[in-house]
Design a protein that fits this description.
This protein is an alpha/beta fold. It has a single domain, classed as 2,3-Dihydroxybiphenyl 1,2-Dioxygenase, domain 1, CATH 3.10.180. It is built from three helices and eight strands, in the order E-H-E-E-E-H-E-H-E-E-E. The strands form two sheets. It has a four-stranded mixed sheet with strand order 1-4-3-2, covered by helices on one side. Strand 3 and strand 4 form a beta hairpin. The radius of gyration is 16 Å and the shape is globular.
């Protein structure tokens, strides 16, 4: 079976702030920017993986979501409780320095983990957790 990741979705409450982070700080490439019925979806891809897309979407973008569900999603996003994305990098420390210097919210400084990676973590402007992993020598 041929199975590959194509898209993942990340809820953001301010697409312009998210774009500065994902495009300008992380270096992802914008491949689409669509508005529909008062909402916006921005699609970005890592330069080395143009077939993988991260879609920045409004919280509870489902048109069938009830007002209370939309409010609950907004609250969870504001608390930073929604899941984010894990990236790999060849230099965790250099990436950490670049993202920290851009003013991102540091969650974890580069740390050697017992499961074979060195990683760090930040929150994006919406509060989503992003982890950056570098495999350590086997």
């Amino acid at each position: 079976m041929d199975l590959r990741l194509r898209q993942c979705f990340v809820a953001v409450d301010d697409h312009d702030k998210a774009l500065i982070f994902y495009r300008d700080v992380l270096g992802l490439v914008v491949t689409n920017d669509i508005g529909f019925e008062g909402m916006r979806w921005v699609t970005l891809s890592p330069p080395l993986q143009p077939d993988v897309e991260i879609v920045l979407e409004p919280p509870a973008a489902d048109p069938d979501a009830s007002p209370s569900d939309k409010e609950a999603m907004a609250v969870l996003l504001a608390k930073g409780l929604l899941r984010g994305v894990n990236f790999t990098t060849s230099d965790c420390d250099a990436l950490f320095d670049r993202v920290r210097e851009a003013g991102a919210d540091v969650v974890q400084e580069p740390t050697d983990q017992p499961y074979g990676v060195r990683d760090c973590a930040f929150r994006d402007p919406a509060g989503n957790m992003l982890r950056f992993l570098q495999r350590t020598a086997d």
